[in-house]
Amino acid sequence: MRLFRKITLDFSTRLYLWTTLVILVTFCGIAAIFRAYSDDREEEVGGRYAGFMLNDMVHGISERLLTVENIVKSYEPLVKDRIGSPDSLINMVERWALSDSLIVGGSIAFTESYYPERGKYFMPYVTRTLGNKPVSKYLGSEDYDYFSMEWYESTKKARHGTWSEPYYDDGGGDVMMVSYALPLFDKYGNMYAMMTADMSIDELVRDIAKLAPYRESSSFVLSKRGTFIVHPTRTVILNQTIFSYADSLHSESMKALAKDMFSGKDGYDRRKVRGKDVLVNYTTLPRTGWIVVTFSPYSEVVRHLGAVTGYMLAVLLVGLVVLLIVLRYVIKRNTHSLEQLTNAAYKIARGDFSTRLPHNAGDASIRTLIDAFAHMQQSLTDYISSLRQSTIAQARIQSELDIAHAIQKETMPRTFPTSADRAGIDVYAMLNPVNTIGGDFYDFMLADGQFYFCIGTVSCSGTVSTSLLLTVVRSVFRSSISAGQDPEVTIKSMSNVLHDNPETDLNATVFVGSLDLASGNLIYANASHNAPLLVYPDGMTEFLPGSSSLPLGANVLEEFTQSMITLRPGSRMVFFTDGIITATNAGGAAYTDYTLYHTVTIIMANYPGLSASELVKRIEKSVREHQGTERQHRDQALMTFTYKGLGTSPAKDD
Q: Is 390 helix (H, G, I), strand (E, B) or coil?
C-alpha cells in the first residue's frame, strides 16, 4: 500500500506557488542587497566626511608651513648680500624670527670654520620669550654640535629646503619644535650656510587633537619616522613610535595599519583595532611627510542605518502579503483562458496557423491578449507568403549579379607587363567598384611594338546591361587593335555601336591611346573622359593637353580628333575615373583633380624610381585616407604606366 500519493496541482496553483517563491526570493535578495549596499554607502559617506575634515585640517597646516618657507626664502638674497659682515647677520635673523607669529626662532648655521676668526662654529640664533621679546645668542659648541643634528644633516644631504623631524631644542629654543632649513650655495655650488626658522609643535598642531568627526573619535599625528607628535596619551609623544606602541599593546592589527600608512597609501579603511571595529582615516602632510590619523567607532558611523533598515523591511513585508493575496485572486480568475491560449500557441508554433483561438474571456486584458495572438496569427500567415515570394525574387537577382560579375571579371586584364619583362613599359591598374558590379573599366594590349590602352566609364540601369555594354566596348577596342586603327577611329567605332543602344540613360566616356615603344610617340583621343596626368622624367607633372569630344553614343556625326605627344624614356602617365576625384570625406569635401595632381607630384619627388604598382597603391592610399569611412557612390579606377623605351628617344614635343 502506498503511503503517499503523488500530488498533482492544477496550472493556477502551480503558477501561484512558483510566483510566490520567486517573490520571496526576490524580497530576501532585495533586503540583503539593500543592507549590504547601505552598509557600504554609510562607510563610504562616513569615510568621506571624516576625510574632508582631515584634509581641511591638513590644508590649514600646509598653509602655515608654506608661510614660513616663503618668509625664509624672501630673506635669502638679503643674507647673501651681507655675508661679508658676520656681525650684522644676527639682526637679519631677528627680522625674520619676529616677522610672523608662527615663527618662534631662527638662525644662520655656517659650515665648519667658514669664518676662521670665529672658530669652528658660527650660528647666529634668535628666539622669542613669552613676552615676544627677541633673545639673541651664538650657538655652536661641543655641547651644541649642530653639524651632527638631524635637521642640519638631512638638509645638507637633500641640498634643498626641508622640514626636520620634531625635536626638543635643548640649548636653543628649549621647546619641542620643528625647523625649516634652507641651504645657501656659492657660485661653485658649494654649501656654505643654512637658514632656519623654528616653529613650536604646540602652535603647529594645536587643533589636531580636537579633530573629532564623530562622537568618541580620536586623532594623532606621526612624524615621517613614525614618532608620535600628537596623541591623547601625552606620555608617548616624542617617546614612542607607532611600531613600538603596537608592540607594547601586542596589537597585530595596529602593526598592519602602520605598514599601510607608511607604504604611501591614503584614504580610509574599516579595521579591527584592539578588538574594536573602527573607521580609520589617514593622510600625509605634503611638506613634512607627517601622517595625520583619526579613529572613529564604526557603530557611530552607521548609527542611523539600523533604524532605516527596520522601516524598509516592515514596508516590504506588508507589501509582500498584500501582493500575494491579490495575485492569488487574479490568477484564479484568468488562468482558464490562458490555458486555452497556451495550447493554441503551441499549435501555431508547430506551423498550424489555422488553429482556433479562445473567444470567451471574461477579463479585458485577456481579450486584448487573444486579439494580439489573432493578429500575430494573420501576420505570420502573410509573412510566410511574402517570404516565399521574396526568396524567389532574391534568387533571381543574385543570379543576375553572379552573371554580371563573371562578365566584368573576364573583361579586365589579369596580368600586367613590367620592365622586367623587357617590354619597354611598366603597367599597373586597379578597380574598386562601389557595388558588386561597377561601371568603370580599363584594358590594354601589347602588339607589334605598340602599347594600346583605354580607360573609361559606362553607366546605365541594370547590372547585367552595364556588364554587357562593358564587354561591347572592350570588344570594339580589341577589334580596332587587330585592324591597326588609330585612337580616333576606335572611339568613333565605339560611339557608333552604342548609339543605337536601347538604354536611354546610357552615359559612357573613354580615353584611348596608342604608344610606339620604339619612338615614344603617343597618339590619343578623348571622349569626355578626365584628362590624365603626365609626369616627365625630371619629375615635372602636368595634365595631358588635347581636346575632348562628346561622350560615346551621343552623336554618330560627331567628329572625333586625336592628338600626339612624344614621351621620353622614364615618362609616366596616370589615368583615373570620376570616382577618384569626386571621393568625398565626412565633411563633404571632394578629393579633386587638383589634390590628385599634388599627390602624384609629391610621390614622384620623394620616390622617383617607384614602380607602376607602387605608384597606384600610394595614390589609392591617399584617396582612402581622404574619404575615411565615408560611403562612396562612384566606382574608382586607376591605371598608370612608365615608358622605359626600346631605343634612342627624341626630345619632348609639345
A: helix
